[in-house]
Amino acid sequence: MAADPAEFENHDSPENCRIDALKLTGFRNYSSLSQEFDARPIVLTGRNGAGKTNLLEAVSFLCDGRGLRGAGYGEIAGHNAESEGTPGWAVWGRIMGPNGQVEIGTGFGSFAPDVPENRRAVRVNGAPARSLSELGEYSRIIWLTPAMDGLFTGGASERRRFLDRLVVTVQPHHRRQINAFETAMRQRNALLGEISPDPTWLDAIEAQMAEHAVSIAAARLETVALLTAAIAGRTRSAFPSARLELQGTVEHDLAAMAAVDGEDTFRAKLHANRAGDSAAGRTLEGPHRTDLLVFHDGHNIPARKCSTGEQKMVLVALILAHAGLVRELTSGVAPILLLDEIGAHLDSPHRDALYGEILDLGAQAWFTGTDPGLFASLGNDAQHFNVEAGAVLLL
Predict the structure, then answer these.
(1) Topology classification of domain 151-307
(2) Strand locations in the chain, DSSP E?
(3) What is the pTM assigned to this prediction?
(4) What average pLDDT does range 45-62 have in this prediction?
């Protein structure tokens, strides 16, 4: 499976979405780091607590959202940040993405003096980004972490976030619709909490919510349909086939009617549910309650009823199918894959199958693990680094 590293030296090729350089300042256990990479997959090995997952988390901040851990921004500053007088953190990356090479910088605290206290600053090629969602135009990053092992057995909110991450890598503006819907929903909830809420203002807010809700549901339905087709096309994969279903009122209605009718239907539901939502103190129906149901197609059973190992393989299958879909839709630009401790959860044949599929995709995957032997079969097809106490050394 060995390949000549020179094959990866064409930095103008659109075939790989990749990180060419990464710089960290005050990020968790990295007081300072500057490292360059080529387009091959990246293997990060080292002892527990060395900072392997911290590197993946830093990379995840080069796209929109709160990173692969979902941590509060204030939790990320390095352990010695306050004593050193730098209570903040910064991540910079030079990325080859769908629109060519771009430099993305993001920071928090002392590195983001011009943004509100609870937000992070984002710059694209040195200029302030319009919003976090703008990053979706320049980077495609998806991840799989041990924290996601309970995805199928946990609450709907985790599966919904997973789904929306998949949608964003296909339709970057999806996050804007989610943010706009949630803002309008908070306004409606606050208004319903008043003794005599203004019905005209409620009508206006509910019209906004309906418009955004239908856009969200339509993007989810389209992505699930595309992903279903991509899964069906994976006839030679070592990983199981999966079947996906969306369980949500707006998605259900929109599957059977035009978008304009879907807006009218959801707006009418919001109007009819005002009393119940007021009593509950929250909006009880909408795309914020949608669930993603996943089935092991070979066994024809819900993934939540599968063994832990089978659930892991279903998740891997979904990530690989989605990566292939993104590449197809972006004229050959596969997303960056962040795969934390993935090798420890697969047997040797499935590890090799995973590596083979990633190499076939041309994706720059970032692997972490404590045992370098788990990645030995990648050989020169990957870049191998040792991570130790906030330092990254090429092996």
Answers:
(1) Glutathione S-transferase Yfyf (Class Pi); Chain A, domain 2 (1.20.1050)
(2) 18-27, 30-36, 42-45, 88-97, 100-109, 121-124, 127-128, 141-144, 242-247, 291-296, 301-302, 336-339, 365-369, 383-388, 391-394
(3) 0.89
(4) 95
